[in-house]
Amino acid sequence: MRSNRMGWALLAPTLAILAVVGFLPFLYVLYVGLFDWNPFSNQLGMQWAAVNNYRRLVFDGAFLDSLWRTGLFAFVSVSLELSLGFLLAQTLVKNFPGRTVFRTLYVLPLVMAPIAVGATWRLLTIPGFGPVPYFLDKWFGIDYRLGTFADQAFLTVVLMDVWHWTPFVTLTLLAGLTAMPKEPLEQAQVDGANRWQVFRYLTIPMMMPVLLTVIFIRLMDALRVVDEVFMLTSGGPGTATQFIGIHIYRAVVPKTDYGYGSAMSLLVLYFTIVLCWLLFIALAQVGKQRE
Amino acid sequence: MFKHKLTVMLGILVLFSMVLSGCAAAVPAAQPAAPAAEGEASWWKTASQSASCEGVTIRGISESTPPSNFARETLAPAFQAETGITVELETTSWDEMYNKAINDMQAGTGIYDFVYIEQDIIYQYLANNYLVNLTQLLADNPNLASPDFDFAKFTSFIDNFKDADGNIYGVPMEAFVKIYLYRLDLFNDPAIQEAFAAEYGYDLAPATTHQQYQDNATFFTQYGADNGLELWGTTVQGNTGHASSFYEFFESIAPTFGVYNWGINSENWKATVENGGGMNSDAAKEALAFWVGLLQYAPPEATQSTWDEVAASFAAGRAAQGWVYGENAAWIATDPDRSKVVGNVGVALPPVSEGVMEAAADGSGYIGYYDGGSFGLPVSSKNQQCTLLWLEYIGQESVQADWAVAGSRIVMESTYDDPKVQEVDAKTDNYYTLMKSEGPLFRGAPPFPFHSALREVVQPFIWKALSGELTAADALDQAAAAADAELVNLGYGQ
Q1: Whole-prediction pTM value?
Q2: Domains, chain B, ordered by start
Q3: Which of chain B's residues have a Cβ under 8 Å away from the Cβ of A44?
Q4: Into how many domains does chain A fold?
């Protein structure tokens, strides 16, 4: 009983801070989402709208498009990061000359702020000045213009995310691989299993908790991506890279549509929570199977 | 061992930072403002003391432009020396400036004591009572009314910052026109003139019609390609993810085709032709098709260019002609550290469709954008009296000439006659003279209280036209329909 009280007492400051910076703003957004509130509309102040903002969401093509685009971006970038990350982790787990230097250089993008990543890629890719369009044109005859071609912009944004976050995936998976017991692998090899079989039936299942955790973290990050994409393409050309975070930013900040923006934020939060919950269940299932 | 490694690493870091510091460009010392007479200096001191402002810090926010940078680097230190009031002026990107200022004023936080008010946003601010009535504030504080400050000395541009009763809410700090710049060295080259005449059957000259502009653009793009030059026929402020492209189209290009006020009918707040608007009119579609068509004659960075990059592209000698904001004219034409076309910048009125020049002359239309802004005092400011002194300080006649030279901006009639301005005028192909004589042909943005909300709805369609996702006609049809719907949402044009 006393230890319970002590536990709550120790947790109290954290809970208080969470309530102030997390729960109260959430309630406020929930409240604002029930109003039409644009300071630059003809009706000043907040006008009661009940669930109208949520109804608008269902018919808002631009919102639904940005949601779909975000899902596609998250799927493609996280898949690439996982594949590359796993490959590199398996390489780095072995000893080879220059491994330490490579590992140090390789994780450098990880320490960069997303806004700096966006700025760096912008400088690299701006036509007329950046090296990427120059060499693509010189070597392959590719007309590379992020502001003009939607597919190039989307691909570049994915590559930027992969460049930024694959080191994180690699490091996490490397930790998992290093901690993995070696005996079952050696035993399987003695029993005649080839490398693919070892990988498919031993490495992957044994790494599943780590993999799911990485997917969990990266998926959450990818779904809320804003700053580096905004810096690189501002969501363009047109709306080709306008992911949900940028869409909400535009609605709330320049457009000052606070009510509708709040409704959008809450819906996206809901989707994110559902996704987290599904991943959590998967993670728990894996845990049970292992037991 | 570890200690040794740490020492070596720290040593390398220190060495690296010293090298970096050595490589940094020398920051020019702030120029002193025009020397004030002894009596004037004592007036500022006395006024500052009477309002208990000595030692106070006032904070402002503005876009990072030549005029704002002059205010931050030159006027603010001079004002501090005179009054003991520190001015912290944050100069940032255009988007960020508005986001921060509006959020501060909406929440009433009082972070900023003065904010940049662009001519086109003032109506939003007035509708929300964000700003202090400066006319009233001066009347209420006669001890703070500088003898060197007078609203009557400003050009008629100050009328943009008045309410219906004539009260003033902003002290103009910049005003300029978005002008047609062209390369004098190219346009005056006899060999080029001959080649152009042979190809098009008429003489090469700054364009007065859209067809001529396009011919010039086509010719110089081909000329650049034929001669292995990084030269294109025109600039296009065509960023496909930034509001700058919306502004270039609706405020600079569309008016030259006779489409005014973004194509919105201010009587019923409608944009579609079927509802009495003009956003998707034939003239507007022709204008958008013309402008989007110019992309093929523009440098490859055009679809990522805002107003800053357009000025930079022109200054880098990458375009033969273009619509460029006038605040950049002086540095492009005179600053060899930043511009490759010093001494080769020609200035002219933009090309227009038939009847547009006449409409502009009689006041029923306009040929382009008269841009500018003022510094205003938010109601939420906690240092209103001290900020009033700052606003009066920047509104003195004595500081205007240096400011005009640094930022190609003029807000007072008397500035045009200053010898310093006349000297730069000669170097900029008489940009200032043109602004003075032809300025009335240009006009600021329409007085829409819903300015940014509507822009956010319309601009994606312009971006899609620029990236080729939509044709000009489809883009404007969809944009106009979306504008009609949004205006209803905002409580206009039910």
Answers
A1: 0.87
A2: 49-176+371-441 (3.40.190.10), 178-362 (3.40.190.10)
A3: 127-128
A4: 2
